[in-house]
Records
---
Amino acid sequence: MTAKAVKRAFKYRFYPSGAQAAELARTFGCVRLVYNMALAARTQAWTLRQERVNYNTTSALLTGWKKTDELAFLNDVSSVPLQQALRHLQVAFTNFFAKRARYPTFKSKKRSRRSAEYTTSAFRWRDGKLTLAKMAEPLDIVWSRPLPEGASPSTVTVSQDAAGRWFVSLLCDDVIEQTPASGVVGIDAGLDSLLTLSTGEKVTNPRHERCDRKALARAQRAMAKKEKGSANQARARLKVARVHARITDRRRDHLHKLTTRLVRENQTLVIEDLTVRNMVKSRSLARAISDAAWRQFRTMLEYKADWHGRNLVVVDRWFPSSKLCSTCGALAERMPLNMRSWTCRCGTVHDRDVNAARNILAAGQAVTACGDGVRPQRGNLRSGQSSLKQENPRATTGIPVL
Ligand SMILES: [Zn+2]
């Protein structure tokens, strides 16, 4: 058994005093302003002068802004969250230049997440109490689960969601004991069931989701009817945000339990890369929601597999996983989406999704046998095609070449 040192975030709700809430609201506002001004400066430098501006330059800009009369209020909040905002912007640009993300966008007062990040110089952690810079009293945190023994946070992120709830996330060092598991599993993403496993198990969406989604639609309709900018509309918007928060909370809990179980039971987990599929499909609401769930599922699975020393294999969807018989390898001719089960020539009756999950597992195991972490490339398909083509001349022997 080995142990792995990891960085792990622990998130809790907290209840700020009036003064703390005001200080945090001010900080969120300054973080947003600094981020947007730095983004504007970087965009301008690039479009007008083809200059790349880096973090250090934006940091110098910030120092200058603080000295002006109009922006002197930036000095009233802790400087660390403002610096962190510039670092986040730097990361956004790095991702953009590496073609991993789109061009960074401005933070909006209404739509963007309200948050501020504090590093060790901007908070005090003593006797299990957390006090942020510019605050006299520690935060009133609800310790819903314990921090690891002796843990001490290196970064603290404070945020407020659209439903008005306050959260603090503490990034701590933790040690994970790695015990090998015996299982292997292929996982297929679906629409009617959230996931289907190669073991035949179907994982459904959280029990209340259908109900919650109806409530969400109802609340959204109610909000649309209210007069714009009125107190009634603000109340209706809060109601929408509350239902939304309930849905995302339940989904996250559900996915956490699910990924923890899958990683505990299995040494090798195989999933398919859905990014290719996402580019071609049309977007329905149900699809958008299931895609969001899948992305979250994959992110959780990736870091938990890493923590626990599991082998997570991502296969390209280069093979027809639904149409291929997992028993005999024959290819079914056509497979409309509404066909939930089918019978192969070999006599096997397949559940469409379970069969797909089994094929995904087989593809993943083939990849691991060839060498760790190697993904089947499109070239494999092409070489498969060319070997198929080589057979063609035989089939056409005797036909005169014109
Ligand atoms: Zn078959």
Note: Residues 235 and 376 are 52 Å apart (CA to CA).
---
Amino acid sequence: MPVPVSQMWTVASYVIRQKLAGRKQYPLVLMLEPLFRCNLACAGCGKIQYPAHILKKDLSPEECFRAVDECGAPMVSIPGGEPLMHPEIDKIVEGLVARKKYIYLCTNALLLKEKIDLFKPSKYLTFSVHLDGQREEHDLAVCREGGYDIAVDAVKEALKRGFRVTTNTTLFDGANPKSVRAFFDEMMDLGVEGMMLSPGYSYDKAPDQKHFLGRARTRRMFRAILSNRKKTWQFNLSPLFLEFLMGKRTYPCTPWGMPTYNVFGWQKPCYLLQDGYAESFKELIETTEWQNYGTESGNPACANCMVHSGYEASAVNATFSSLEGFLATVKATLFTKYEDKEALRMLEEPQAPVNPLIQIEPSQSATHLQETRA
Ligand code: SF4
């Protein structure tokens, strides 16, 4: 099942309205983090290292609705932490569906089967299940044996009940392109609507600092993975963003395109960095020194970044900024196979054995918090 036409039309007409209004800095997706605690402790994650009193905090549904209304973006991504650990996640989703927002509820799916009765299938709600590759690769990335099987089981259940389901995959240095391609086959065979991809960001707080990708390595890896593409693969991403990952296009970062709201307020400048907070979306837009961010700025924190939350909005903006951008998107969607002999050869290169990421027990505080809030 492809992305519903109504969603494509909502997003396209929203972007065209922003363009006609001459608005240069407009949000496309609100990254709404209603909590930071999680029932996993992935080695590449920089979101869960807060002290217990912060991990205990939740945004209330009213705070979420205020942020969504203030921002006005047509899509809302709910990452975290693990959103299914939020005691009122069902109310938050219900309120956003009532506002006709297209929601991507990002979950590791460990609690999905248990909590699925809280939700009703809707064209506005998609479970975006975090899966970082085939069984062995995923379990290593999330530092939890059996995590892949639980997530796949939950995906099947959600699909059986008529929910929209996508996958959400973060790739780190050492990812095996052949295995990633086999993973795409597995996911499409499961029946998910589409797949989202991003290179990992080098969070300085993440426990594993050895497996983050530089830009050149990112492009090489995605060239190997995404060239000679199978027709069956569906991606829930702008085709121009995929070309950006493959090194076929360059874009400046658009950090305001996916603004982040969490228990601290509106995060400056983006989902990944924390250079202060604003009390309102207007204040975020007006007071952030945007020129200090993005690869071209020379900011070392941005030097290797190619992540989805910084650059997909750039790709979408490019689609609607010129006839060339629009035609390139149509061509990439309908006609391009990305045939590339060198990329085929790269798939046969010997791979280093899967290098175990740091193994971490889920933090006791997170487990405890989950129990006390169940
Ligand atoms: S380049 Fe990456 S880290 Fe820097 S502002 Fe953009 S999204 Fe944030």
Note: The longest strand covers residues 164-171.
---
Amino acid sequence: MAPIAKAMMKLNFCSLSSGSSGNCYYLGNEFHGILIDAGISATSIRRFLKNMDISMQAIMGVLITHNHTDHIKGLEVLTRKTGIPAFTTQKVWKSIPGPQKRISSDCIREIPLKEKFHLAGFDIEAFPVCHDAPETVGYHICYGDKKITIATDLGHICQTAAPYIRAANLLVIESNYDEEMLVNGHYPHYLKTRIKSDHGHLGNHQASAFLAENIGDNLKHICLAHLSKNNNTPELVLQTLQRTFSERGIILNGQPKISVLNRNMPTGMIRLI
Ligand SMILES: [Zn+2]
Ligand SMILES: [Zn+2]
């Protein structure tokens, strides 16, 4: 992208909702914004953005990660009422189920995997992650020298996804379940097995271990995301992270900053520039 005078630059991130009941994230620069997933109602998206003084007209597109309801629930209404285009790989688009397929094809922009495209001033790359949908992607988004990686549904961190996660200045990464709560909880055996599998969700212990092993000076902010309603709590997420870090002799002195994203409401705006 063309260099932009630093004084003019602005880069904000906010989670509108994060968890197994619905996901939607906002990233905006001084000119435009984008959304990542539309897994809450279009009304909620509109209301949350309005409360943050963000105009719907500023939103240039919504990036879709995969076809699960908690990522696309509001997509059909959002695209129909606002005309905001949805960006997604061909495989993800083909896998979107019937009712959501009412989305006008005019609103769909197919994107390649692992190839940069430009939108609203951002350079964006979709990368594959391991999850039990026909295709699931994370997004690596660059603006100036800032790098944001969003990986919210992944059973494990594979070799393809790891470099995108390591490169982030702001990382949004799944910390879905506490292992003990899941094992001792009331979910049927098949569901517990699915969640824990390599194509299910990332547990607190997995996210913490990866971060402890891979944390670098470039990482300024970690957002722990997509918490399970029934098998996790924000306190357990932080306890697991702190325990894992201290076991490995890692002391956090306020950096990177760590946020646990709210399941049903926006988590405060994070200013990257
Ligand atoms: Zn999900
Ligand atoms: Zn999913």
Note: Residues 238 and 260 are 8 Å apart (CA to CA).
---
Amino acid sequence: MKKFAFIVHLRASYRKDMQFLAAPLGWIPDSFYRFALRNRPLAPFIWSDVHVTSEATQAQGCVIMLPYSGQQLLEQQKAMMPRLQEAVELASSTGAEIVGLGALTSPITLGGKLLTTDSPVSITNGNAFTAYITWKKVAQLIQAHPNRCPTVALVGATGSVGSLVAQLLATHQPEANYLLVARNERKLSALAVAMQALDACVRPKISLAMDAVRQADIVVLLTSAADALLHGKHLKKGAIVLDDTQPRNTHPNLCKQRPDVTVIDGGLVAMHHLRLTRSVGLPPGLSYACLAETMLLAQADHEGHFSIGNPTLAQADYISTLAIRFAHLGFELSADYSFGKPLARSVPARLTEPAFTLSSTR
Ligand SMILES: NC(=O)c1ccc[n+]([C@@H]2O[C@H](COP(=O)([O-])OP(=O)(O)OC[C@H]3O[C@@H](n4cnc5c(N)ncnc54)[C@H](OP(=O)(O)O)[C@@H]3O)[C@@H](O)[C@H]2O)c1
């Protein structure tokens, strides 16, 4: 097995994430951190060792922290590039041969493209497996939905994860109605055409407005914004939201304002033996799907870069076969969580039933 590294950034705020380093750091207000650290080039550092298998006595990988918030990454993309390159070099110095890109480190590097030139390691943005895991969950939700042909909104449909989820759904669930939402109309139209080419029955609608999401029974959130984009006013009664975003584009208050709505944390993978020396904000035994892709490629001794930019259907197929090969370690869709807690509301039993695989639904 190759060694791997996974690059993350602060998820919410300095205050919230620093308390994982030492509890008193969580009492310092964010404004102080922002003032003290403004315009300082902060070096990435090793946040956590990672053990994937139960018998591992030494770390099989690590998580590298880029100490900037999602907002900072989006606002200062150019300034972040040298920091990301430092993170890749740090990964390489630990012996890692495969590096995965967590959260917004992928969108700001064009899905990893900007890091591939002269890279000492293989890069993956982790989005082929993320799309595959997300598709599996959406397929379950469609099958269990009381409407025979529910409307599924893909918000952030044209992105690296979104475009592959859309193609998987067009291929395997052509019966549903699809609404594609993002800000670039040209890309949305091209994706709608690509979905129709996969199955002529699929006739997606496109929209640039979040308000259009109110038509949807199932909303899949795949945007790369730094804060909450989806609000109660955007959702129809009883809507189910699958939120893949990191940092989250839904606010915990959403469920208080709209108790009729169910929010499920998306892109989560069950990993039976996974151990981290410091949390990345998930309950034990769970991994982000993009981290899971990095671990899968490392387990398989993969050579070369993998998911770069928008991954393809063939890559989803390949990574799903690796997930089956290493199923003794997990690499499967997790149980339902909502804002990090096991989903209290009972989702109809059918939602958790069929285990879709790419080969079984073709
Ligand atoms: N849970 C996991 O394991 C996991 C794994 C991978 C990624 N993720 C998360 O998934 C999300 C998407 O990642 P990605 O790599 O696919 O990002 P991406 O390639 O940048 O795609 C983002 C998509 O969102 C749209 N978008 C961005 N800002 C928007 C806004 N304000 N309003 C409406 N649409 C907006 C973009 O299109 P326009 O620019 O045209 O609007 C694009 O369609 C990120 O939050 C990432 O952290 C989670």
Note: The mean pLDDT is 92.
